[in-house]
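Box 3.1 A note on notation
Throughout this textbook, protein chains are presented in two layers. The first layer is the amino acid sequence; the second is a token string describing backbone geometry. Keep the layers aligned when reading.
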Amino acid sequence: MKKWLLLLSVALLFTGCENKKGAFLETVESQNDVPTAVNKLVSIIQKRGMTHFGTIDHAQNAKGVGMRLKPETVVSFGDPRTGTLLMECNPTMGLDLPLRMLFTTDYEGKTTITYTNPEYWTLKHNIKDKKCLGIIKNIHIAMQKLAAEAASK
């Protein structure tokens, strides 16, 4: 019996990996290189009245310690009002705020933008309140739009 449960668990794990719906991370291919896409996102964030909390250039940090890394940059941003509402839903939301997007380039030169699917927070932080779920859904839509805009020429 234990063998079957283990087999079933492993099978579910691997079938879940191929399922795009409900994925914890969402990735968008960018038509821009990392610096252009990052600058574009920061500009969009500022135009929309959100706060740009910071940009972390992991490749530059690696260079500072004598190591090499393909372009990899994280942009941290958000709306403190919306973030506060989410932390009122569950204080542990502070672990996932402010919002972040990761910009990377692979060895073939393909640039991507990756972010955590906000709907994952409902599981991670046990959020069930309808008002909070609505906020998370709206953030998900906004993240999709921001990533698409930053990725386009």
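The beta strands are 25-30, 51-57, 72-78, 99-105, 111-116. The chain has a mean pLDDT of 90.
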